[in-house]
Amino acid sequence: EAGVAQSPRYKIIEKRQSVAFWCNPISGHATLYWYQQILGQGPKLLIQFQNNGVVDDSQLPKDRFSAERLKGVDSTLKIQPAKLEDSAVYLCASSSGGGYSGANVLTFGAGSRLTVL
Amino acid sequence: TQLLEQSPQFLSIQEGENLTVYCNSSSVFSSLQWYRQEPGEGPVLLVTVVTGGEVKKLKRLTFQFGDARKDSSLHITAAQPGDTGLYLCAGAASGAQKLVFGQGTRLTINP
Lengths: 117, 111
Hints:
- The complex is a heterodimer of chains A (117) and B (111).
- Chain A is mainly β and 117 residues long.
- Helix content of chain A is 0%, strand content 47%.
- Chain B is an all-beta fold.
């Protein structure tokens, strides 16, 4: 089966500019996640969707970050305006299950690397 | 806040040596997962452990979940250069919907 697709793979912008990342999950996966991975750290959950509803966005900086998952398939993560500390890899993942049980497997995309100058 | 602390953060050893990576928390987890991440790629799931005291083996890798479900270890026997990567543990506390990751252990196996 095809994996989780993300684009762009790399993006360089100046602070205060905006950027958008796109994710296409594995077909049929109901749950989609956006993680932020800063260099040297583990991934941090930004937002979790189940179908097109938000399950958890408690760590999403809502003054500058937004995400949507229209029609319960593709998702877009936007940052506006970007700050220097937003430099990171943005990982999208999907899973067929909704809760974190032993049977719930997350499949990650390759990520989108953002550099804010 | 559930925290997972991994140790060591960096490990560089020679091919053929054995090593153990630890993942510790003060919280109880319903399940715990180990991932491996290579440069430019997303994390890939290696194993999930769900029962306290559980031991799982994946070729030369042995994973153990602590009896109290607060900690886990990953042991690699006779490490190979292909084992090089970032190893991440991740878990969800009982009843929680959020998967929390440790900061990772960056492993380098030198030929």
